[in-house]
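// run 5 | inverse folding | seed 20
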Protein backbone atom coordinates (compact mmCIF):
# COMPACT_ATOMS: atom_id res chain seq x y z
CA UNK A 1 0.00 0.00 0.00
CA UNK A 2 1.41 3.41 -0.97
CA UNK A 3 1.10 6.39 1.31
CA UNK A 4 -0.17 9.66 0.00
CA UNK A 5 2.41 12.49 -0.15
CA UNK A 6 0.54 14.30 2.66
CA UNK A 7 0.77 11.32 5.03
CA UNK A 8 4.41 10.79 4.15
CA UNK A 9 5.26 14.45 4.85
CA UNK A 10 3.28 14.28 8.09
CA UNK A 11 5.24 11.19 9.18
CA UNK A 12 8.54 12.93 8.39
CA UNK A 13 7.47 15.94 10.46
CA UNK A 14 6.57 13.72 13.41
CA UNK A 15 9.93 11.92 13.18
CA UNK A 16 11.76 15.24 12.97
CA UNK A 17 9.92 16.51 16.06
CA UNK A 18 10.83 13.35 17.97
CA UNK A 19 14.48 13.72 16.99
CA UNK A 20 14.52 17.37 18.06
CA UNK A 21 12.86 16.55 21.39
CA UNK A 22 15.38 13.76 22.02
CA UNK A 23 18.29 16.05 21.13
CA UNK A 24 16.97 18.75 23.48
CA UNK A 25 16.56 16.20 26.29
CA UNK A 26 20.14 14.97 25.83
CA UNK A 27 21.49 18.53 25.74
CA UNK A 28 19.55 19.37 28.92
CA UNK A 29 20.94 16.32 30.74
CA UNK A 30 24.49 17.16 29.66
CA UNK A 31 24.05 20.74 30.82
CA UNK A 32 22.76 19.64 34.20
CA UNK A 33 25.57 17.14 34.77
CA UNK A 34 28.46 19.29 33.54
CA UNK A 35 27.49 22.53 35.21
CA UNK A 36 27.04 24.70 32.16
CA UNK A 37 25.43 28.10 32.11
CA UNK A 38 22.19 29.12 30.45
CA UNK A 39 24.33 31.14 28.05
CA UNK A 40 27.45 30.11 26.14
CA UNK A 41 29.78 31.65 28.74
CA UNK A 42 28.62 33.31 31.93
CA UNK A 43 29.66 36.93 31.75
CA UNK A 44 30.62 36.95 35.42
CA UNK A 45 33.20 34.15 35.28
CA UNK A 46 36.69 35.44 35.86
CA UNK A 47 35.37 38.55 37.60
CA UNK A 48 35.12 39.35 41.32
CA UNK A 49 32.14 37.67 42.96
CA UNK A 50 29.44 40.22 43.83
CA UNK A 51 29.63 40.82 47.57
CA UNK A 52 26.57 40.71 49.77
CA UNK A 53 25.57 40.62 53.41
CA UNK A 54 22.43 38.80 54.50
CA UNK A 55 20.73 39.05 57.88
CA UNK A 56 17.86 36.68 58.55
CA UNK A 57 16.93 37.76 62.06
CA UNK A 58 19.13 35.24 63.86
CA UNK A 59 22.47 35.68 62.09
CA UNK A 60 24.36 37.78 59.59
CA UNK A 61 26.53 36.35 56.83
CA UNK A 62 28.84 38.41 54.63
CA UNK A 63 30.50 36.81 51.61
CA UNK A 64 33.55 39.06 52.15
CA UNK A 65 34.23 37.22 55.43
CA UNK A 66 35.22 34.12 53.44
CA UNK A 67 37.97 35.79 51.37
CA UNK A 68 41.00 33.51 51.32
CA UNK A 69 38.84 30.38 51.20
CA UNK A 70 37.26 28.46 48.34
CA UNK A 71 33.51 29.02 48.55
CA UNK A 72 30.71 26.99 47.04
CA UNK A 73 27.87 29.53 46.94
CA UNK A 74 24.60 27.63 46.58
CA UNK A 75 21.23 29.30 46.02
CA UNK A 76 18.38 26.97 46.97
CA UNK A 77 14.90 26.76 48.47
CA UNK A 78 13.14 24.29 50.75
CA UNK A 79 10.28 23.84 48.25
CA UNK A 80 12.73 22.96 45.44
CA UNK A 81 13.04 19.16 45.09
CA UNK A 82 16.30 19.28 43.07
CA UNK A 83 17.77 21.60 45.72
CA UNK A 84 16.89 19.19 48.52
CA UNK A 85 18.25 16.30 46.41
CA UNK A 86 21.70 17.92 46.19
CA UNK A 87 22.04 19.03 49.84
CA UNK A 88 23.48 15.71 51.15
CA UNK A 89 26.37 15.94 48.69
CA UNK A 90 27.08 19.52 49.79
CA UNK A 91 27.17 18.32 53.41
CA UNK A 92 29.48 15.46 52.39
CA UNK A 93 31.77 17.89 50.53
CA UNK A 94 31.96 20.15 53.58
CA UNK A 95 33.07 17.15 55.67
CA UNK A 96 35.52 15.84 53.06
CA UNK A 97 37.31 19.13 52.58
CA UNK A 98 37.21 21.54 55.52
CA UNK A 99 39.22 24.02 53.43
CA UNK A 100 36.08 24.65 51.37
CA UNK A 101 33.24 26.77 52.71
CA UNK A 102 29.78 25.77 51.56
CA UNK A 103 27.52 28.81 51.81
CA UNK A 104 23.90 27.79 51.18
CA UNK A 105 21.60 30.78 50.75
CA UNK A 106 17.94 29.84 50.96
CA UNK A 107 15.60 32.00 48.91
CA UNK A 108 12.54 30.99 50.93
CA UNK A 109 10.22 33.85 51.74
CA UNK A 110 8.57 31.77 54.48
CA UNK A 111 10.84 31.94 57.54
CA UNK A 112 8.87 29.24 59.38
CA UNK A 113 9.19 26.76 56.50
CA UNK A 114 12.94 27.41 56.40
CA UNK A 115 13.32 26.94 60.17
CA UNK A 116 11.27 23.71 60.11
CA UNK A 117 13.30 22.39 57.18
CA UNK A 118 16.60 22.98 59.00
CA UNK A 119 15.22 21.28 62.13
CA UNK A 120 14.20 18.23 60.07
CA UNK A 121 17.28 18.22 57.80
CA UNK A 122 20.39 19.30 59.71
CA UNK A 123 23.25 20.48 57.50
CA UNK A 124 26.37 20.19 59.65
CA UNK A 125 29.42 21.90 58.22
CA UNK A 126 27.42 24.17 55.92
CA UNK A 127 26.88 27.87 56.50
CA UNK A 128 23.21 28.43 55.73
CA UNK A 129 21.12 31.57 55.84
CA UNK A 130 17.76 32.70 54.50
CA UNK A 131 17.52 35.63 52.10
CA UNK A 132 13.76 35.98 51.75
CA UNK A 133 14.15 39.25 49.85
CA UNK A 134 16.33 37.40 47.31
CA UNK A 135 18.82 40.24 47.02
CA UNK A 136 21.92 38.03 47.03
CA UNK A 137 20.82 35.62 44.29
CA UNK A 138 19.58 38.53 42.17
CA UNK A 139 23.12 39.96 42.22
CA UNK A 140 24.21 36.76 40.49
CA UNK A 141 21.28 36.59 38.07
CA UNK A 142 20.14 33.35 39.72
CA UNK A 143 16.39 33.13 39.67
CA UNK A 144 15.93 29.38 39.14
CA UNK A 145 17.22 26.96 41.70
CA UNK A 146 19.49 25.29 42.53
CA UNK A 147 22.32 27.35 41.12
CA UNK A 148 25.82 27.28 42.53
CA UNK A 149 29.03 29.19 42.04
CA UNK A 150 32.61 28.28 42.80
CA UNK A 151 34.52 31.27 44.12
CA UNK A 152 38.29 30.98 44.47
CA UNK A 153 40.44 32.21 47.36
CA UNK A 154 40.86 35.61 45.69
CA UNK A 155 37.09 36.12 45.47
CA UNK A 156 36.91 35.42 41.72
CA UNK A 157 34.01 33.51 40.18
CA UNK A 158 35.39 30.38 38.55
CA UNK A 159 32.38 28.24 37.64
CA UNK A 160 28.62 28.28 37.64
CA UNK A 161 26.46 25.18 38.01
CA UNK A 162 22.79 24.90 37.14
CA UNK A 163 20.72 22.14 38.65
CA UNK A 164 21.64 19.60 41.29
CA UNK A 165 25.24 18.39 41.33
CA UNK A 166 27.00 15.49 42.94
CA UNK A 167 29.52 17.62 44.79
CA UNK A 168 31.57 14.60 45.83
CA UNK A 169 32.12 13.39 42.27
CA UNK A 170 35.75 12.70 41.28
CA UNK A 171 35.56 15.38 38.56
CA UNK A 172 34.49 18.10 40.98
CA UNK A 173 36.93 16.94 43.65
CA UNK A 174 39.75 17.14 41.10
CA UNK A 175 38.66 20.60 39.95
CA UNK A 176 38.38 21.93 43.50
CA UNK A 177 41.76 20.50 44.49
CA UNK A 178 43.41 22.56 41.74
CA UNK A 179 42.03 25.92 42.91
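// decoded
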Amino acid sequence: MLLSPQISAHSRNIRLCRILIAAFAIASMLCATTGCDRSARPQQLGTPAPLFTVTDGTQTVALADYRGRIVILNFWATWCAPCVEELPTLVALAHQDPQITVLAVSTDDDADAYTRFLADHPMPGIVTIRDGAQRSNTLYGSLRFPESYIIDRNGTLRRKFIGPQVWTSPELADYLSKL
